[in-house]
Amino acid sequence: MTRPSSRLPASLRALAHRNFRFYFAGQAVSILGSWIQQVSLSWLVYRLTGSSALLGVTAFCALIPQLVVGPLAGAWIDRQDKKKWLIGVQALLALQAFALAILTWTELIGTGLIIGMSLALGVLNSFDTPLRQSLINSFVGRSEDLPNALALNAMLFNASRFIGPPLAGLLLGLTSEALCFAINGLSFVALVIGLLRIESRPPARATGSMGEVFKEGVAYVRHTWPVRTLILTLAMVNLTASAYAVLLPVFARDIFGGDAGTLGVIWGAAGCGAFLGTVFLAHQRGHGALAGTVVVGSAISAVSVAAFALAGWMPLALVAMAGLGFGISTVNVAINMLLQSMAPEALRGRVVSFFSSTRFGFDALGGLVAGLAAAWLGARYTLLLEGVVLAGFVGLLITWRHRLRAEVVAGHGAGR
């Protein structure tokens, strides 16, 4: 176990652990590259086709494997050497990015190849996300520092989300989508170097067949009411509010009359709000407070997505987008913190896989529905409808808030 230093403020306490610092530094570069690729791919699709429906299909293909493959990947991960496999997955992700760069540079890229490459990315991320998340506890070595480590990891993700899209917009204006994809391929090297510098005891592996390990994880989620409720909330927020990302190119070009730079600014506003949300969560200690944050964040998401849909003035749209980023981020990160804190160590890989499969799988479903609906209703009315649906669920969630807070506090510590 690493010995943490007392010189760091409480909001950064996980960085006192040497192993987590190496992971954090490599992750910083890797996530920035991933955001540059995501924005560039979205712009490429809309530049080539002008189709909001295809934006939804592409996003769906990049995320849906996590809903289908993710839970099984979690059962497989809990039986493996997680650090070794995480390094291998980074190498495959780099190859995917370089292949996308070459196809785009040679102008061989087309609708079919974009969809195929998006599916490949989704399958790899089905393993990458739970591998990364489930290893964090071993990098900090102290269970009481795990929530802060998860908050800092999310803060890093959202800082990159704030910086990456405007940077991608700048790069797209100066160069091309192909270069952006190549930059992402190189960014995975940083995380591999960080992982190779880490010295930690591998987490205990689950025993039994894949089927037995998977059923054990499903039983835990089914019979633990706060876990089940948190995952349901995660599904609803990402099915509705998170669908905004698919339609941003439509808003940037057709509604606000902009270009790739406009897309980067709007996406960056969401990233700014999301970053502020994770800064807020990094200071939180009580699990009861985190449960309350889930409810409030869901409500902010519903209001913000409707406000963005109705905004006709760019500054107001950016404020709404920042609120949307804040709301979605606090919900997703707080739920992840709560689930990992409550989960027993032996089940952590499976719990993380259920989290990531719900988070990204329902994001995929929501994006597909939003893209298809926007082709019929228009982008504005589609997002407004998403906000109304989420507001209805928030009303139900408010009636559960006292029980949720009490059972989350009672369940905390089961994973220690």
TrEMBL record:
One cellular component term from this protein's GO annotations in UniProt: plasma membrane
Keyword annotations of the record: Cell membrane, Membrane, Transmembrane, Transmembrane helix, Transport
SUPFAM superfamilies cross-referenced by the UniProt entry: MFS general substrate transporter
Subcellular location: Cell membrane
Any one Pfam family match given in the protein's UniProt record, by short name: MFS_3
TM stretches of this protein: 20-46, 52-73, 170-196, 230-252, 264-282, 289-310, 316-339, 360-377, 383-400
InterPro entries assigned to the protein according to its UniProt record, in alphabetical order: MFS_trans_sf (IPR036259), TM_effector (IPR010290)
Keyword hit for Protein biosynthesis: no
CDD domains tied to this protein: MFS_MefA_like
Keyword Cell membrane in record: yes
Membrane topology, record value: Multi-pass membrane protein
Main location per the UniProt record: membrane
Protein name (record): MFS transporter
Native species: Zoogloea ramigera
Lineage: Bacteria, Pseudomonadati, Pseudomonadota, Betaproteobacteria, Rhodocyclales
